[in-house]
Amino acid sequence: MQEFLEFLTGEIEKLHQARTFKVEVALEGPQDHRVKVNGRDVVMLTSNNYLGLANDPRVRQAAIRAIEEWGVGMGSVRFICGTQVLHKQLEATLSGFYETDDTILYSSCWSANEACLTTLTGSEDAIVSDELNHASIIDGVRLAKARRYVYKHNDLPDLEAKLKQARSEGARFILSVTDGVFSMEGELAPLPEIIGACERHGAVLIVDDSHATGLLGSRGRGTAEELGVWGKVPVHTGTLGKAMGSAMGGYVTGPKAVIETLRQRSRPYLFSNSLAPAVAGAAMEAFRIVMQDPSRTQTVQANARYFRDRMGSAGFRIPHGMHPIVPVIVGDTALAMAMGKDLLERGVYVSGFGYPVVPQGHARLRAQISAAHTREDLDRAVSAFVAVAQKHGVLEG
Ligand SMILES: Cc1ncc(COP(=O)(O)O)c(C=O)c1O
To answer: What is the pTM of this model?
Structure first.
């Protein structure tokens, strides 16, 4: 035991030396456009609370009502005694939102991705996956028995080549999987072209729209709606832990046979507890709000445009795009970390990411904009960015 603990301590020390040891900032209240840190009022610029629903009074009340009506938890998995009418209602709400046959809930989108990839394929099949897909997809692909083909990020000729290769190497079925939005860049997958490639090669497309549901497209339906291919993605996975109430939970939505297979066979569904009623109630209210009133979707898009324009005019390197994830590239990892610390001291909480999360030389501060941000929040953030960048020589003074 002693030797084991000494080994772990040494590994942790290496993280400190490499300055990649992660420190958690404890918020002294709810997640919102402003949060309390060390007693101070701070603009939150690093949360996936894109629609500002995490602390919305209607969503909070829905969670409280769900506890009062349905209790705190089920103490079981869904197929034993863990399904309430509430869970069925939320699944029906999601199927209505996506206009699909059926939906299955998971305790996270991590589990949903793992479930999809491991349950829907066997050793005779192939999975074709973008190299920058989310870690849950990468792990799901690793766990699956299917043959793996990883294509270069958003590279359509390489996708086409990998689909062809999978077919020529005898795959029975091919699943192709991509993030709808890649979270380090706020970059959209070219879904119209990916759908075309999948159709040409008879592959089934799965899109993880965790960073798009509720915030992209005219009605918040996500990347497919934003890119004009609504209804053409057969299977979506998504999270309830970002725009849609920000609590937790995930889902897969699509054709009946897919969802039924997952309900019968997927291990994260069969062997893990049901979604807590408060979480299901909150998510249902979040979907109700977005479906009845697209104004939050429009506001987060307008806020993202405003922040991107202002940061660009101030001279920052912002990759072209429209998503509320706004990466501010500064290059060096230590510099990104130091700037993040200084920004927090100036009342703006934004996370720095460096190598190996992003390629060497592309370290960045990743700002995330919410519908809850006021113009004053965004102006304060831009001013803090300018002051900190001048201090570190990133911008001319
Ligand atoms: C693209 C993507 N998929 C899946 C997940 C995991 O979602 P959850 O927190 O619901 O497990 C995330 C969260 O970071 C994500 O960004």
So the answer is: 0.96
